[in-house]
Specification:
- Helix 4 crosses helix 5 and helix 5 crosses helix 7.
- Strand 2 and strand 3 form a beta hairpin.
- A three-stranded antiparallel β-sheet has the order 1-3-2, covered by helices on one side.
- The protein has about 230 residues and is mainly alpha-helical.
- The chain is globular, with a radius of gyration of 53 Å.
- It is built from seven helices and three strands.
- It has a domain of about 110 residues: Arc Repressor Mutant, subunit A.
Amino acid sequence: MSFPLKTVIAAALSFTSFTAAVAGGVVGADEAPAVTGKQPITISSSSLPSASTASVQTVRFAPLKEIVQPLGGATPPAEEEISPLRADDILKVPEKKFASLAEMVRTVDSAASVDEQTKCLATAIYYESRSESLDGQLAVARVIINRVESNRFADSLCGVVKQPGQFSFVRKGVLPQPNISHNQWKNSVAIALIAQQDAWESKAEGALFFHARHVSPSWNRARVAVIDNHVFYR
């Protein structure tokens, strides 16, 4: 065999041995134990769930809830005191029962401001019947209200009170100024509010006229009631 041919064969055998050695080294690295001395963990592709068999879990979120926190340092407002009642409030609370007209009068807030019509009515009660019982004052108030509703007199409380020749305390259509600090005025305001709301039944219901007992007018009218010092008629 010539020298060149031997050289080629030797080179081929050397390359084959080198390739085998490299391949053996790679395999040996895969089979060698872990450096830490523990057994290697073998993960098989067969142990992983496939896309077709894996179960899909649905995540459900709880509904959102608004959380309201009080402002720092804020304190809840104190409950408003529910007393006393106005006459219109009394009607809104039908279960509220009163043993007497006097009890109702004490409950009504007579110190509150009133409108002009209520003031006219209260003034008439004050000057015509402040010395009478509460029933007598209510009867006078209802006479004035009945006149407004009858279409035979003026169509307002002030109009009825100021009508000429009806009430002696009125001078040329001008009402005097009552003593508003007096307890009798406060009672007159309370009676005026109660009468307007018809919150208490008058003992002279339906009356349109009245006069003092010490006078005897020649009236041909039906008598309704006699309360204290007044006689009431339809």
